[in-house]
Amino acid sequence: MDYEPRAKEFQDHKSFGNSGGGISEFIVPHLLKLYGSRATARDFEIYAPNATFEDPLMCAHGVKQIKSAFYSLPKVFSESRIVEYTIQENATGPGKAEILIDNKQHYKIFRKDIDLVSLIKLKVEGGQVVHHEDWWDRKPLKNRDTTNLPLVGRLAEYTRRGSMLITHVLMGFGKDPSH
């Protein structure tokens, strides 16, 4: 198995990420695989163990739930991928960075093409993603802090968590698919 060289390579990138610059060069290829329904277990090594992922449909806590969210894409869509993107990386402190990926996503469901403009926001600490948000149409996610009525925002949060938990169960609790 080539696990040891891979682990060393990942550690090298974690150190590289501590400088606050260039970590996106390591992370983005893995994200492209996640969004392109080609993810392997190794692609999720970019996430810290307690990382979170949020989009308008789901809110995942921990790598296993994040795996369930992305492994579900090919179950729903016959095609999924990021077709265009630009990256902005900002150091936010020692060993910390924010990566903004302005992108266009393409999906196909029931032979219908869907193109979506999105802003992916990643918070990185120690070379690993600790928080990943996908803002569809570049609009902030609805929550108690971003809506006029906190109750509506709270309902949106609960709906995303419920959707994630159902997906997590259906996807085998984040189990990596056998190829």
UniProtKB/TrEMBL annotation:
Protein name (database record): Uncharacterized protein
Domain of life: Eukaryota
Cross-referenced InterPro entries: NTF2-like_dom_sf (IPR032710)
PANTHER family: NUCLEAR TRANSPORT FACTOR 2 (NTF2) FAMILY PROTEIN (PTHR34213)
Organism expressing this protein natively: Musa troglodytarum (fe'i banana)
